[in-house]
Amino acid sequence: MQFGFRPSKGLTFTVLTILQIFGLYIFLKGFLLTHQTFDLQGQRFEPWQDFPLTQQHTPVKKPTTIPSQKGFKRTVIVLIDALRFDFAIHAPTATTKAEEYYRNQFPIMQKLTQEQPASSLLYQFRADPPTTTMQRIKGLMTGSLPTFIDAGSNFASSAVNEDHLLRHLANKTMYFLGDDTWVNLFPESFVKERTFDSDSFKMLDLDSVDNAILARLWEVLDKDDWQVTIAHFLGVDHCGHTYGPSDPNMKRKLNQMNDIVERLVSDYVDEDTLLVVMGDHGMSVEGDHGGESVEELISTLFMHSGRPLTFTDDYYQALYYRIHETRALRLGYDIASISQRLGYDATSYPVVAQIHIVPSLAYLLNVPIPFGNLGALLPDTLMPKYPDIHSRMRNVLHMVQEFRTNALQVKHYLDQYAQQTHQLDFSPEKLQFITHHLYAAEDIMAQLMQTPDFSDSIQKDHSTYLEQLEEAILEYDAFLISTIKYCKAIWAQFDTGCMFVGIVLLGFSTLASLWLMHREPRASYSRMSLVGASVFVACLAASCLRYQFPEALVARGWFEKMEQVDWVGACMAVAVCCMAFTLRPQGAASSDWYVIIIAHIVQACTLGSNSFVIWEDRVTRHVLATLTLAWIVRNLQVAITKTDRALALLYPILFLIVLRLTSAIGQCREEQFPYCSYFHSGMLEFNLENYTGYGTIAFVIVLYGMVIFSTTTLNQIAGLTIGACYLIPSIMVLFRIFYEIGAKSLKIEQGQREMPLMVHHVLDVYMPRVVYALTFIGNNMILADWYFNSRPRRIMSWALFFLWTPLLAVVQRPLGAALILASPWIIKLLATGKSNSLLIRLTMLHFLGHHLFFATGHQTTFTSLPWKAAFVGFEDMNYYGGMILVTLATVAGYIITWFGWLVLLSENPHQRQTLHLLILLQSIPTFLSAIFIFVLKRHLMTWKIFAPRFLFQLLLQVSSHVAAIILEKIVE
């Protein structure tokens, strides 16, 4: 048979990359959760509209409508970013020294609750994960639940395209001050002349945003025209991100917030004014947020007014407690865990979901509840007009009617959702177990209205009727809370069919990669065409069977998101993979290939265990140590003399020493406490009163010496110009490291550490730009010299490696930057060896990338993403530049090891086929991770542990394929 097609390795890698990306795309379509949003306006429901819902054709007298108090004329909403609940309450003593900076520093809210209990309400405010500011603000205004992707959102803009509270306050004069996230989410709600927003991404210090608010806030409140004022303070959140909660600056910021609330209460709150102070999320022990730990979920809600907001009589307090306790049980809130983790008695304060603030504010401000709200009214806030604690029947009946109004709004939303989406999960039959609570409440009220003396007993305290009214409230509330639980479950539905097709495509492309490891780069046109066409037609015919059983599949949520073009693409992908199987073998593969692949499959299987994922940093170190032993064995096999045997041991032992030293630095993830302790950048300080100070000075001296030595080496192999392109950026990185350590060492309790604006620009903007520019210039000079002057690949590979380390280091924290700058000398250890150990050393490079990822202060969690890297070299937020920098900061350790591949392959050019290993070492765990996610998609830890690790694996998968394509071009 004549062979006429000779695909290059570059083409082969490109095709494999496309196949993998397409498989991941199909899988993610089924995995990433969505729910439909609608741009419909909420309407005002009459309390007894359509009463009773269960007997529309039976005439039943409607209960008397008990009028509510008038809505507040003025409202001040103060959102303090990351106001964890234990920051806002009093503790007798701080149990540890670390707690003294945030315990008892914000006493005003608890003081008012104790002194004016009728006018002050304090809640534990529980966020729905993810605890990111944008998602939280959206939930606080819409009352909707978050999902990974809102299908109705406009991805070209962050604007909210669903009903929200601010839309219903449009007829009021509204001022806004602070975080511009609000303006981006609700652009139509704010008038430019009354909006004083600050770029939250640009201003990362503790005081800039807060001071800008305070410069305008009192002036605004002194005016007579305002009706709603919103102020979003960021200092507490930024303090957490920068220093953590246990820092003198946290004490200063909390004291400042306390003073602000005190002034608001004393000077601006009267009977017509409502003050709402709340946090959007909490703060982890490291000072971050975005995850779902107790510390991140529990924030604060405080409401205060000059007029009574709630009843303080024991009867009402018992009823409120009963409702809150029932809600907490239904929603699965772990009160004991809150008490244990945050160090206070969580049973002393109600735990309320953040979305409950939406209908409650709508009630207090006398506006309609937003259309998509799923929140339930806070019972404590429901007071009728002319409240009288002795008229219990009247007061409780008022609560019943308001709960019914809330239930009507939620039922209307469910009906519209079913009508618009045609999802069977929202059909009346599926919702029956929820709506039976609503109908039970309606039956209770209908029976009461059919009782002759009920209406006459409203002004009296009839115990039997009171119990029935309480039961009606609990049934309405059960409907509301059950709806929240159900929607959370339904919007966590996966398209199993999409996920299955994605796994099949990933499996085929991974098998194709394995098959192509040792195949002739030649193919028969006729054989490939026949196989490809046959498989394509067969797959296309099989996919058409989906349309023969649409109802059964759709009812199970299978293939709901698969478009026709996706089916065609999937068929083509399988056909291309099958075409690869027509290539002939090309010699026998080394036994090392099979040992490494099998061992890697076993290691990748650990991604299906949450314990192994949590402790992956330690697992990686053990794997590296084991591979080092295999390297020693390979070296000793070819060692003849004593000198050879000594050298065979030297470099592996040095590598083990480096591995041991670098294993002491990193970042702990939440689940590892209290069994995790790393030395991190925050511990570096120039304080000569302890050993850390001397160690830090030695650390800086060694860094400077290493950079000078590296420059000397680079001058010798690549010339003075390339050496300068490395030295200048490296010195600038060292300046930034020195400054960050020095600034941390000078922390003071009063006043913020100020830095002249010019110094800030030099360190954070101009210096990084010089680093980027010199790296670009030096990179092009090396490639040009390589291309035109045919300089040895080995020299040019090392020159490129050294040149890129300052760029990768400038976006890291001090210890991570130091490790990146030292990485060429670590790779030098692995670059020394015989060809018989090449595969083992390349595999060690792969796992070294994992180790460097952890050692540079990263973890596979959303909270550990290095967002600050997005602003290194930029004065303003640049979305594309920021995305690139965050990606570089995250995968810097892997990029280092890919340069290591370049160095090793440049010294062993006849081993180009080993680039298949680079692809396989990421394709195998990606394929297995997809299977684990498919199997464990209902696991309790899916979104907290498995999903972040899987998404990180996708980033590595795509990046490694791109790296393989680039490396193939360079070493060819």
From TrEMBL:
UniProt pathway annotation: Glycolipid biosynthesis; glycosylphosphatidylinositol-anchor biosynthesis
Protein location: Endoplasmic reticulum membrane
Alphabetical UniProt keywords: Endoplasmic reticulum, Glycoprotein, GPI-anchor biosynthesis, Membrane, Transferase, Transmembrane, Transmembrane helix
One Pfam family here: Phosphodiest
Keyword Disulfide bond: no
Entry superkingdom: Eukaryota
Main subcellular location of this protein, as a coarse class: endoplasmic reticulum
Bilayer topology annotation: Multi-pass membrane protein
GO molecular function, one term: mannose-ethanolamine phosphotransferase activity
Spans through the membrane: 12-33, 499-517, 529-549, 564-581, 593-613, 648-665, 691-710, 717-739, 770-788, 800-826, 838-858, 879-903, 915-936
GO CC list: endoplasmic reticulum membrane
One BP term from GO: GPI anchor biosynthetic process
Family the entry assigns: Belongs to the PIGG/PIGN/PIGO family. PIGO subfamily.
PANTHER family: GPI ETHANOLAMINE PHOSPHATE TRANSFERASE 3, PHOSPHATIDYLINOSITOL GLYCAN
Name the UniProt record assigns to this protein: NMO domain-containing protein
